[in-house]
Amino acid sequence: MVYCTVIFNKKERDNGMVRLMDLEEGVDWYVDPDTGHSVWTAKFLLERGFCCHGGCRHCPYDSEGRVRPEHAPALQIRGLREG
What pLDDT is attached to residue 78? Predict the structure, then answer.
């Protein structure tokens, strides 16, 4: 388990607030074997609740910041709201 400080939604981002989260390797993030970089999973990015426009490899959001249709069922299963 890794503890990570994360900005979790737009309101917190705008107010400079962060949260400490328990992140699990292989579920929330993984290390790319070719580059050695940490990569966020779509699951984590959906739970975070917004697009950071940083070009995340598994970003579940479109260019307008809306959840892409193929990720909408996962959003509903987790009981999360878009945006």
Answer: 56
Cα–Cα distance between 61 and 68 in angstroms, integer? Answer: 5
Put simply, whether the predicted model's pTM sits higher than 0.70 gets the answer: no
How confident is the model over 61-81, as pLDDT tens digits? 998 888 888 887 766 655 555
| Amino acid, res. 25 | E
Residues 6 or more apart whose CB falls under 8 angstroms from that of 4 comprise 20, 21, 23
CB 42 within 8 A of CB 33: no
Q: What is the DSSP letter of 9?
A: S
By three-state DSSP, how is residue 70 classified?
A: helix
